[in-house]
Design a protein that fits this description.
Elements lengths: L16 H14 L17 E6 L5 H12 L3 E6 L11 H9 L5 E6 L4 H8 L3 E7 L5 H15 L6 E5 L6 H12 L3 E5 L15 E3 L2 H5 L4 E4 L15 H8 L14 E3 L12 H4 L7 H19 L5
Parallel strand pairs: 1-2, 1-3, 3-4, 5-6, 5-8, 6-7, 8-9
Helix pairs in contact: 1-5, 1-10, 2-10, 3-4, 5-6, 5-10
The structure holds phosphoric acid mono(formamide)ester.
Length: about 300
């Protein structure tokens, strides 16, 4: 098996196709462990992982923790809200103190773009970016690519539509980098106020109408409005947003009949996705994404720890 040859996982932009394929194939091989009665292998016994989360999380933090535990690593969770961050300790001081306890890997989520990159440049530990501001969310894009490959048998040549708040979405950014590298045709749609200025330089086609983007799509990925990252109201109301950008039983008919529907979570039901689509086992693969997230994070821990070298 090829080695990853990276100290850190900071983003998909700086990842090669070979590295993405290695992570996806390793994750696929780990899927089976989560179906065993005893969901644990000794691979990372004696290693320790710190999950350092400055922002709220359900899926990412839990699946990094479960991934570590399934590989027998010791996992420690730190939430900024219950740490000495509330007493004014800086990110760098926090990181230096954690480094002094000799963990092997630090997973960080932070509202500032570049926070994981700063830690990676300062610390000897491997750093995994679990979401930095509106910048990147690499493990999410990897689990999304794994899910597309699992459901469609390939990524290259598929039409993937990303709908919603593209500007503030680190999930969209990482997926655009990853999916275009892997040969998918990526289209995006959202209000003009939620579209990055440089969208046309990102190798995707941008629309303002959801219907134009999802026409004949193989994959429709709906995104949450990142209200926490918007500096001012950039759309009139949630009701009006939903009128134009909610995936529902009517507009989904424009996509291919066997199209899959994805969402990174958390969902705002009735805003960007109607509940009957979110819960439809015929098209929704949202919980498969979550399941694959554990395997992807196991693969990241395993490969950063040297793989089978
Ligand atoms: N997809 C995702 O990042 O979800 P959480 O915010 O719950 O981790």
């Amino acid at each position: 098996m090829m080695k990853l040859g990276k100290k850190d996982i900071l983003g998909i932009r700086d990842m090669s196709i070979a590295e993405i394929n290695l992570i996806l194939e390793t994750a696929e091989s780990f899927l089976e462990i989560s179906t065993r009665e005893i969901k644990k292998v000794p691979t990372l016994r004696g290693k320790s992982v710190i999950n350092l989360f400055y922002e709220a999380s359900t899926r990412t933090r839990t699946s990094f923790e479960i991934a570590g535990k399934r590989l027998s690593a010791d996992t420690i969770n730190i939430s900024a809200s219950t740490s000495s961050v509330v007493k004014g300790e800086t990110l760098i001081d926090t990181a230096r103190n954690l480094e002094a306890m000799n963990p092997d890997i630090i997973v960080i989520r932070h509202s500032a773009a570049g926070a994981p990159h700063l830690l990676a440049s300062l610390l000897r530990q491997s750093i995994i970016n679990a979401g930095d501001g509106a910048h990147e969310h690499p493990s999410q894009a990897l689990l999304d690519m794994m899910t597309i490959k699992e459901k469609k048998g390939k990524i290259a040549g598929l039409k993937v539509a990303l709908i919603g708040d593209i500007l503030h979405s680190r999930v969209a950014r990482s997926n655009i980098y990853g999916l275009t590298k892997m040969g998918a045709q990526v289209v995006v749609a959202g209000p003009a106020t939620m579209m990055p200025r440089d969208i046309n330089q990102m190798g995707v086609r941008a629309y303002t109408k959801l219907e134009d983007a999802i026409a004949d799509a193989d994959v429709v990925m709906m995104l949450r409005i990142q209200l926490e990252r918007q500096k001012q109201n950039i759309f009139p109301s949630l009701r009006e947003y939903a009128q134009h950008y909610c995936l529902n039983r009517t507009n989904i008919k424009l996509a291919k009949p066997d199209a899959i529907v994805m969402h990174p979570g958390p969902m705002n039901r009735g805003v960007e996705i109607s509940p009957d689509i979110a819960d439809d086992p015929g098209c929704s693969v949202i919980l498969d994404q979550v399941n694959n997230g554990v395997a992807v994070r196991m693969a990241l821990f395993y490969l950063l720890s040297g793989g089978n070298e």
